[in-house]
Structures are given as C-alpha cells and as structure tokens.
Amino acid sequence: MYCNDAGMVEIHPGDPYPYQADLHPPEYTKLWDNGRVLNEYQFLYLAKGEGVYRTAGEQHPLREGNLLILVPGVWHWYRPNPATGWTEYWVGFDGAYARTLAEAGFLGPELKLLDVGIHDDIIGHFAQIVSGVAQERPGFQQFVSSLVPLIYAEACMHASTPSVEAKGKLLFERIRAIFVENLYGTLDMESLATDLSLNYSNLREEFKGYTGLSPYQYFLQMKINRAKELLLDGSHSVKEISYTLSFENPYYFSRLFKKKTGVTPSHWNGIETAEG
Question: Could you tell me the domains of the chain?
C-alpha cells in the first residue's frame, strides 16, 4: 500500500469549496458541479460540521464523525453545508494491498459511509499522515501507509459500538479530540463549552466526574505529557518546548512541570536538558 496524498482543511461558514481549488490536481476539482471520478482510494473524515454527498443519483447527508470511503472509478460529489462549514481530513492511497482489501469487500466496490464518531485516535492517525507527507523524511511512505489500514480498522471498531453509550464517555471523547487538535495552542474552556452548546459548570462537573480532573487540568496534563516526549527527544531546549506548547513563559512552564512530575524539565528522567 502506498499513500498518494493527504491533508486537513477547515472550511468556515460561507467559504468557497473546494478550498484553494487552483492548488489541487485538475482531476480532483474540474467539473465539480457535475461530480468527479478518482483513480485512487480515499478516506474522508469529518471532524466537525456537516454537508452532503451524492452518488448514483442518490444524495446522503454527511455529519461530524462520518468516514466516507471513496473508491476508484465511482462517480461522486460532496461539499460542506455553507451555513456550517466543516473540518475534513483526507488521505488518498492505492497499491496491491488496497486492491486486495477491495476485492474482499472491505473497501468497495461502491462508496461506503461509516458513522464512526469523534475519536482522538483516528484524528491523531490522520494528523500523523498529514505531517509525514509534508515532511517527507526517509521512510515516510512506509510509515504513513501503515496508518491507513489502522484508520480503517479503528473506524470499523467504533462504528460497530452500540449507539447508546455513557454520556460521560461521549463527552470525554469529543473534548479530548478537541484537546488533541489544539495541543500546541491555547483554549478557553468557557468558549469550548459554548461551542458544545453546554453550560461550563455542567461540562466541568460531567468531565471531572468521568476523568477526575477538570477540563483545564486535563488539557494541562496532556501538554505536560507531550513536553516529556519532547524532552526525551533531546533536540529541544526547555525554552523552545515552553513556547511550542504555548505556555505563558518558560518560568511558568518549569514551575508547572515540577508540580506535576516532581522534577524540573531540565532534569526530567535524569537527563540534563538545556534551559535556553
């Protein structure tokens, strides 16, 4: 299996679609109003928003948490709802293994829509693919291609989960996915609650009841965990990691890190790390 292309784009309400159509290969965007036919397989995952897709004279809604499986040679068309926009991840792939999966009925022969839900593991795999394709480091093709069947397997697992789940778990998975997407930035928790159409006090109570931490403290802990990984990598200074993870300043980061781990960042795991 090999990966041809991958990407992530956020379409805001009212934005034209396809996004930056002039940067895409013509076969992906030409005759858009009349649909298109691909010469590869694709996964399209909606992390936010809603829209519609059409194939074989039928039209179907697309919503947050859907994974659309596109196959070669099948006419189709899709777009976000102009009133809501959407956030999409996609990966295009092909190869002997992909076609073996298709022949076994896993990837075709027609378009398939899985109601997967929002899961940070799937978003994380797409993000790794997008990053790998962009950086093109040695061996990146093998790495990103290995994540494609993993996305499919986890999508099938989540899609087969009973639709009635604990309210706390559903809320946790949705919020944690947002945290993963914004790990290198900042988040206002009250604005997050508003975006989820929830009262912050209720959100905090439900989230803490499920995890033992408030949303803000959980988000900070995720940042600290990522900081540990960057420190062990050894190629970043404490100051660089502080700014990479959008902490107020290196002093605040070091103080918080020691509070959470018991040691300063420069002495994490017994490894002396540059402060500046």
Answer: 2-159 (2.60.120.280), 165-276 (1.10.10.60)
